[in-house]
Amino acid sequence: MTSTEQTAVPETGSRDPRRSRWPAVTAVALGTFLLVTAEQLPIGLLTTVGSSLSVSEGTAGLMVTVPSLVAAVAAPLVPALVGALDRRLLLLGLMGVMTLANVVSALAPDFAVLVASRVLVGVAVGGFWAVAGGLAVRLVAPADVPRATAVIFGGVGAANVFGVPLGTLLGGFTGWRVAFATLSALALLVLLALLAVLPPLAASQAVRPRLLAAQLRNRGVRVGILATFLIVTGHFSAYTFVSPALQELSGIDERLVGPLLFGFGLAGMVGNFAAGAALARAPHRTVLAIAVVLAAAMPLYPLLGRGPVGGAVLLVVWGLAFGGVSVGLQTWMIRTAPHAVEAASSLWVAVFNLSIGLGALTGGVIVDSLALQGVLWLGGACALAAALAVWSARAEETLR
């Protein structure tokens, strides 16, 4: 980031920052909670769904891959297609799509219909996240932007703490269809909350291809996108198959997977808010630290996680570090492109979700054809490469 771009500022047309709308920030956080829960819930249900619909674990991983790839396309495409549409109406419509998608998932008669419903999930995730990621600068005073961004992305940590683990437990006790039906009901409640507290959000500028391309000429944006691609691809190549890893590598009983994922998510939530506090003081060092810890935690798992205790401890460390990824990299994008937050966020969300899909797909190939340990080594290597990219940004004074 250049010295003239260190402080994120509201986009043109944003509301008076002195009249901050924290209830709206909270409602958007609930939206990210549902989005991430819906996108990642199948991670904890791969074995159950695969057995029910007669597909392998690798094939069942398509439930994560498909919405992620669709979200990667939807992130820049949805804001571009809707033009100057009030972002409040856009977010409400996308949450309605999420509600419908999970109804179809719950009623799916076969795996093909289930995957088709996940396409709708991808549209909702990509469009909602592209807009929500940059809303903090429009809802709160500039000094509160890092904290508000942490709250919005606290929904990611909350999804890992409550959504995915509890959904996994619910699916284990009552069936995976009930888990998806419950998601649909919760999505409807979030839609009503957004309707009640979200203010009108007129588009400050249309997200056109030319504006998106302009962001790629910004060194800080390019580094943020590269770091996102590497970290998220590596993480999801491994985390998509964390349930079999816990069982096969650490000898942990299947019934304990849900509680351990709860611990992972709780650590992630702590990491999210810890990173949010640190980012206000040292954004570069915070993102670098996150990448370094991930580069160590994942490859150490096959070495030190060969028992229940070691596996659980490394899982918590892994969750603590990854919890800061979303708020860390979103803050990076806001700081490097303060006058084109929605455009930069659209690119970032596209790459983030593309990386989720590629990570899950790559992990599925490795698990089915090579070895389960391979995805953990890949995750560590990707995080190490991201750490080097972030370090180089400091060396070139891209981010101060």
Automatic annotation (TrEMBL):
Question: Which molecular-function annotations from GO does this UniProt entry contain?
Answer: transmembrane transporter activity
Pfam families assigned to the protein according to its UniProt record, in alphabetical order = MFS_1
* Record's subcellular location: Cell membrane
Q: Where are the transmembrane segments?
A: 21-38, 58-82, 89-108, 120-141, 148-173, 179-202, 223-241, 261-280, 287-304, 310-334, 346-366, 372-391
- InterPro entries, per the entry: MFS, MFS_dom, MFS_Efflux_Transporters, MFS_trans_sf, Tet-R_TetA/multi-R_MdtG-like
| Record's keyword terms, sorted | Cell membrane, Membrane, Transmembrane, Transmembrane helix
Any idea where the Major facilitator superfamily (MFS) profile domain is?
Answer: 24-398
User: Which Gene Ontology terms of cellular component type are present?
Assistant: plasma membrane
Q: Where is this region: Disordered?
A: 1-20
Output this protein's name. Putative MFS family arabinose efflux permease
Instruction: Name the species this protein comes from.
Output: Actinomadura namibiensis
